[in-house]
Design brief:
alpha/beta; seven-stranded parallel beta sheet; 41% helix
Amino acid sequence: MSTLNGKTLFVTGASRGIGLAIALRAAADGANVTIAAKTTEPHPKLSGTIFTAAEEIETAGGTALPVRVDIQNEDEVQAAIAQTIERFGGIDILVNNASAINLSGTLGLPMKRYDLMHQINTRGTFLCSKLCIPHLKKATNPHILTLSPPLNLDPKWFRNHVAYTIAKYGMSMCALGMAEEFRSDGIAVNTLWPRTAIATAAVKNLMGGDAAMQRCRTAEIMADAAHAILTKNSRECTGNFFIDDEVLTAEGVTDLSTYAVNPDEPLFPDFFV
């Protein structure tokens, strides 16, 4: 399989950034996409809403279903899945993209921020996977792709932001466990993580503004890597912690400079790799 034409994707946090880029790449094939995200009104620091994302997906060649969803709320996730089934007849792919980040150390992190990260990152991934899996079991080439890092217990990834690291690694552990739990059902469960920082609102707002953005790659590298993974045979590709540029290199892509925001600037490495 080399196309997602006719496939239905349920993408969390797809109103902007990497989630939207993955949705647009699938839309270019003619896929159906449920945009499961919270933003319905424009935000001063965050571009895009579920409705603007839907317009972009339709323009790209896909069919969009924008649904306002807080993945902390089980009823809202269940309702969004029900709407997806009613509209498209099934779910072939779940992309667990929604995530919260706070890089504060132990003493500086309010517990409400700790709770938010764990509710969205680990619990949200578990919940969306749990509720989508009964439908994925009915699909012909089902995939779950979670945007989280390879598991690496080097203390350097914990010492400065232990709460965030735990929350992201929780997402990866969901993938690790579910890949084995549902291997016999033919559901591929993998993670994908960028080698470098990606030009998103999180980088701009939390990690150095426009100067930091110049040292990033665009979200399209993650979208192209995700597409390569999601078009693989689900029974032959599961339980992997993928890195974006490694995926593309394996696909024969030799020039990654096209993904750089500014090819003249050195790339900023991401966490956990």
